Amino acid sequence: MTGGAGDDGYIVEFYRLGGAVKVTAFDPETLTEVSIVGDPKAGEAALGRAAVAKLEYVLRKARGNGGTPPPAGPGILV
């Protein structure tokens, strides 16, 4: 599935993992990628919107940080 809010050209991928769905949204212009995990009962449309909303949040945050996307890393241990 391609497209996003306003058809910004995001790539959205759905991957079923047992009782959950991993949704990845990717912006080919900035090479920024985010993922969420959700309940498949929510439906692809709702999960796709949530992933795109997260991607747009990360992109807005990066623009506020001089336009550079956040550094890739192993994540944060909580």
UniProtKB/TrEMBL annotation:
<dbReference type="Pfam" id="PF21839">
    <property type="entry name" value="DUF6898"/>
</dbReference>
<feature type="domain" description="DUF6898">
    <location>
        <begin position="8"/>
        <end position="61"/>
    </location>
</feature>
<dbReference type="InterPro" id="IPR054193">
    <property type="entry name" value="DUF6898"/>
</dbReference>
<protein>
    <recommendedName>
        <fullName>DUF6898 domain-containing protein</fullName>
    </recommendedName>
</protein>
